[in-house]
């Protein structure tokens, strides 16, 4: 029996779908069992292939991903859904949350953010497969991203955008330091913008900074994830 998570990609742009497929291969632990570019095609494949995880676009040529989500839930099909979409309206987000999506990624998706979502999914799935009973601390840990993180996003100060913040956070998934210049280049933003987000994460207790003197030029602040 394969330990790979069976994934289906529903995306109207075939090139984007292929890009997501390659991302999944790079991360490891996933097997893409189907790709669909329309609602009709998606529903046929979903019913037959029964994937464990679906990467779902909202805008399709013959319908919406939200309609597919509702259809899946009406069938009681046991699969998790990550919505990947250009939809930035509150109503779509609310419908997605009511449909039980485990994550909501805004296009254009940066690979570190998608990787973070998939790694988080893998971690939760592994925990649930091995736990024999629940206690409140485990429930709180499982529900953290769907409650606490959303509440944090609602309290973000002026000038701090949730999408950009997640891109910055994703850079520090491993214990590797970045300067503001390096972080800005990685996410496609200016040094000033990157530094604003880095300093916010310091104030939040997620990052710490040190001074890197290097060999030439002025000293630079170097940011690193706080290890707890």
From TrEMBL:
Pfam families: HTH_64 (PF20714), Response_reg (PF00072). Residues 6-122 form the Response regulatory domain. InterPro entries: 2C-system_Tx_regulators, CheY-like_superfamily, DpiA-like_HTH, Sig_transdc_resp-reg_cit/mal, Sig_transdc_resp-reg_receiver, WH-like_DNA-bd_sf. It is found in: Cytoplasm. Keywords: Activator, Cytoplasm, DNA-binding, Phosphoprotein, Transcription, Transcription regulation, Two-component regulatory system. Signal peptide: none annotated. The modification 4-aspartylphosphate is found at residue 57. The keyword Phosphoprotein applies. The keyword Hydrolase does not apply. It comes from the Bacteria. PANTHER family: TRANSCRIPTIONAL REGULATORY PROTEIN DCUR-RELATED, TRANSCRIPTIONAL REGULATORY PROTEIN DPIA. This is Transcriptional regulatory protein. It comes from Vibrio barjaei.
């Amino acid at each position: 029996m394969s330990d790979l998570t069976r994934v289906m990609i529903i995306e109207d742009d075939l090139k984007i779908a292929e890009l997501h497929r390659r991302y999944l291969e790079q991360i490891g632990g996933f097997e893409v069992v189907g790709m669909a570019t329309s609602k009709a095609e998606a529903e046929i494949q979903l019913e037959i292939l029964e994937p464990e995880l679906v990467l779902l676009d909202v805008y399709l040529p013959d319908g919406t991903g939200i309609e597919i989500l509702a259809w899946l839930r009406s069938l009681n099909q046991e699969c998790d859904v990550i919505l990947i979409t250009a939809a930035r309206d509150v109503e779509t987000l609310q419908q997605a949350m009511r449909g039980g999506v485990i994550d909501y990624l805004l296009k254009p998706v940066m690979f570190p953010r998608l990787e973070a979502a998939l790694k988080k999914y893998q971690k939760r799935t592994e925990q649930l497969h091995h736990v024999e009973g629940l206690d409140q601390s485990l429930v709180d840990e499982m529900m953290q991203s769907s409650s606490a993180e959303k509440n944090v996003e609602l309290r973000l100060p002026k000038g701090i955008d949730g999408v950009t913040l997640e891109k910055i956070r994703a850079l520090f998934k491993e214990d590797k330091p970045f300067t503001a210049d390096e972080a800005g280049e990685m996410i496609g933003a200016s040094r000033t913008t990157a530094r604003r987000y880095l300093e916010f994460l310091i104030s939040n207790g997620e990052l710490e900074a040190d001074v890197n003197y290097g060999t030439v030029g002025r000293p630079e602040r170097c940011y690193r994830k706080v290890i707890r």
